[in-house]
Amino acid sequence: METNHTISSFYDYLGFMGEEREDSTYELELPINPFLLQDDGTVHPGVFATMLDIMMGATISRQTNSFATTIHLNLSYFDLEPQTKYTADTTILHRDGKYVTADGVVYDQDKNLIAKATGSFKLNPVKS
To answer: Which of 45, 64, 94, 107 qualifies as a cystine partner to 101, CB 3.0-4.6 A?
Structure first.
């Protein structure tokens, strides 16, 4: 999976790889590197928070042709033990004018649920 364009330098630094799907959603992968681990050997929860925030924002942006700004993000973590690879998926739950609510999930390479988020985003039109 290759990144078609850079979302941010932070995205690149963490090692995310993503691509747009045919249905205007966005697929995001993250191979785990040692610098993403806490002192106890588990993955820092902020890695999954970032992954879900990026995933939901990118999916919303592509489906609405707007920049999506995070307003609220609620997260649950189920397993922080390091795995080989993680993928994320997003579902848009509701859109009302400038506001969108979405769900995001992170799975490991065996499709086990690792983290889940629900977020609210404000749409800002892309300036040409």
So the answer is: 94
CATH number at residue 89: 3.10.129.10
- 3 belongs to a structural domain: no
Q: Specify the number of domains making up the chain.
A: 1
Cβ burial of 110 (10 Å; 0-12, 13-18, 19+) is: exposed
β-sheet bridge partners, residue 104: 90, 117
Whether the Cβ atoms of residue 58 and residue 8 lie closer than 8 Å to each other: no
Start-to-end CA span in the chain (Å): 28
Dump pLDDT digits (tens) for 35-85: 889 999 999 999 999 989 988 998 898 889 899 999 999 999 999 999 988
Q: Is 58 exposed, middle or buried (0-12, 13-18, 19+ CB in 10 A)?
A: buried
Task: Give the list of residues 6+ apart from residue 102 with CB closer than 8 angstroms, or none.
Answer: 56, 59, 60, 90, 91, 92, 93, 118, 119, 121
| Greater pLDDT, 14 or 123 | 123
- Asked whether the beta carbons of 86 and 45 are under 8 A apart, the reply is no
